[in-house]
Amino acid sequence: MRRTLPLVITMVTGAIMVFRDLFNIPEVAEIVNRYLVMSYTLSTQTAVAIGIMNLFKIHFNRISRKRSDWQFSILLIGSACMMLIMGFLFDLGHNAPVYNWWYQILPVQLGNATFALICFYIASAAYRAFRMRSIEATCLLLSGCLVMLGGVSIGNAMWSGFPEIKVFIMNNLNTAAVRGVTLGITLGSLAQYARNLFGIERGYMAE
Amino acid sequence: MSVYSKMMTVDVRIIYIILAIAIAFPLFFPIGLPVASEKPAEVLYQVLHDLPAGSPVIFTADLSASGKTELQPMIEVLVDLSLQQKHRVILMALWAEGANLITTWSEGVIAERGAVYGEDYINIGYCPSPYSWLENSRIDIRNAWSGVDYIRTPLDNYRIMDGINKASDIAAVVTFGTGDPGYTHWMQYWRAVGECDIILAGQVAVNTPNALAQFNAGNIQGLAGGLGGAATLEKMHNRIGSAHGNSDAQSFGHMIIIIFIIVGNIGYFGAKKAGEVK
């Protein structure tokens, strides 16, 4: 039963979704959306709740056993509780001005700072990795530098041809490569979908 | 150690310091370098501009705070444009973070235009479980999630929602994104099934190569990518703002990276000639 039931659920729900999209009957679509698709919302929110409980459990354990960097766990639990309590306490929940103020001064600023730091790592990595060791590496380096110059105002100020070269690279070389990759991913997804639908792939059951 | 070897192994701290100075300098002393217009961003602006007055337009923040530098100027310009063109502006988010961010980032232009809540614009907030929302909104957009706006008032109470019942009633979607779910999902769930013909995307620079392929294929009808796209929108809207100011810093940052790449390669070839590296 533990193995058969999830397989049956997957096959039946998958078949219903395929039927809905293939035949496009409004009445069927409405019933499917109202019950089946909504159940997806409920299951994802349940997963979030379980995730939060798991996070708390792990960090409470870390604090109680004083494992390395346990002080950060206090910070994490404290911050999470503060935002949770504010969400529950204030009228409008996460849209309350006080909640929003805390959100703007902490996560937003920290997120920006973290993202901005990537610039330094990219600079350091580009300096060390971009060497003209082969023809392929040279092509990569040249196209990278041309796109970088064409994408910024100083490149345009130096020579108006840089933006045009960038557009050529992006529209022709980049688009072709992206389409190839996308096609490959799509075919792979279809194959994976069929494997799930027919019960060949059972990885999601932790087998 | 020879000069060439030293050129190949510059201390990372020196790179960081030079880069930090190069980026910070134009932020304090703006230079105002001319910005080259980007065609996909021009198309985006024009498509939105040409929508008739009264068209319902969704602005969705499918983003995190990390996209602030590139996406905030886009949101300011495009929400302002829509209010100017008398579109019905609907703000929302498929990402939990996005709800707060689009509210904060658009409140300045909304106040400047004197837009009235519930008549000129509405904010339906965060719509959890994006796949379900996108599916359900094709049948009933008001009740695809909670049926209320971000201040928990039923959507039926607002005049702006008159005649907006399902996805096909929406004239255009403008999605600002830093990742998934984002423009690809609007494309798949709304455009591909013929619900909404116009999907416009404002994306951070790292998403732009993929989004450009979709723009070239006609799957999205306009694309503003990165700071260049944001600066193009500012230029077209005659509203020079932070995208232009930050473009100078980005320019200097890129130049420093290119200079270090050149230095590294000179060192590599010199050292190779001297037999120090294979």
Q: What's the SSE blueprint?
A:
The complex is a heterodimer of chains A (207) and B (278).
Chain A: H1 4-23, H2 26-64, H3 70-89, H4 97-129, H5 135-150, H6 153-158, H7 161-197
Helix pairs in contact in A: 1-2, 2-3, 5-7
Chain B: H1 3-8, H2 12-28, H3 39-50, E1 56-62, H4 68-84, E2 88-93, H5 96-113, E3 121-126, H6 130-136, E4 172-177, H7 183-191, E5 198-203, H8 208-216, E6 222-225, H9 226-236, H10 242-273
Parallel strand pairs in B: 1-2, 1-4, 2-3, 4-5, 5-6
Structure report:
The complex is a heterodimer of chains A (about 210) and B (about 280). With about 210 residues, chain A is mainly alpha-helical. Helices cover about 85% and strands about 0% of the residues of chain A. Chain A has seven helices and no strands. In chain B, strand 5, helix 8 (about 210-215) and strand 6 form a beta-alpha-beta unit. A six-stranded parallel β-sheet of chain B has the order 3-2-1-4-5-6, sandwiched between helices. The longest helix of chain B is centred in the C-terminal third of the chain and has 32 residues, at about 240-275. Chain B contains ten helices and six strands, in the order H-H-H-E-H-E-H-E-H-E-H-E-H-E-H-H. Chain B is an alpha/beta fold. The two termini of chain B are about 15 Å apart. At the A-B interface, helix 2, helix 4, helix 5, helix 6 and helix 7 of A face helix 2, helix 5, helix 6, helix 8 and helix 9 of B.
Please sum up the structure shown.
With 207 residues, chain A is mainly α.
Key phrases:
heterodimer; A: 207 residues; mainly alpha; 7 helices; 83% helix; extended; B: 278 residues; alpha/beta; six-stranded parallel β-sheet; 50% helix
